[in-house]
# Entry
Amino acid sequence: MVFVGEVIHGDYAGFVSGSTLTTVTQYELWKAIWSSLKEENLWELAHAIDRHADFCRSFLPQTFVGNHDVSRIATLVGPDLAGIAAFLLMTLPGVPSVYYGDEQGFTGTKRDQFAGDDEVRPPLPDSPGALSPFGSRLHAAYRRAIGFRRRHAWLATAEVEVLHRDNRALFYRCTSGSRWCEVRVDLDRASIAVVADDEAVSLR
# Structure
């Protein structure tokens, strides 16, 4: 059984160790992913990954790029960069989760008012065939990212280190024993390339 606490900020590791929770929501990483992509400031994401590496040494954070309390990732960064966000989510340590519809590019803005989260909680159609075809490209990106993560489940407990950072480029490496994975983000090309010891995938 897993107990997840929704903690927005503060001492994540201390909260986990002082409670009966298994893990908490990693809002720092969520904010850094969408904000860095939107503002073209990958320094912020690099800083968050450094902190994330520290958290992962004491517990496995629950990671995400969308949930029922925040604006949709496709609204925040657009569908192309939302694909990069998915690959970031699936290549970083922790326990990733996907909020329904993000994989189809659902849009919606979280508002601070009564029923302000209605936009980010729309009903699903009766069947997958009723989904809009406009979400198919992002859905394919999610399938590739999730497939990579499933084939490299060791990433959950990997060590991560940022090897290069600037405003529009980021390079980090995840390792676990002899296994490794390198990730390069290039905002000039709106691309992300992932190379592991046994395969390579990319999104452009």
Observations:
- The CA atoms of residues 67 and 100 lie 8 Å apart.
- The longest strand covers residues 169-176.
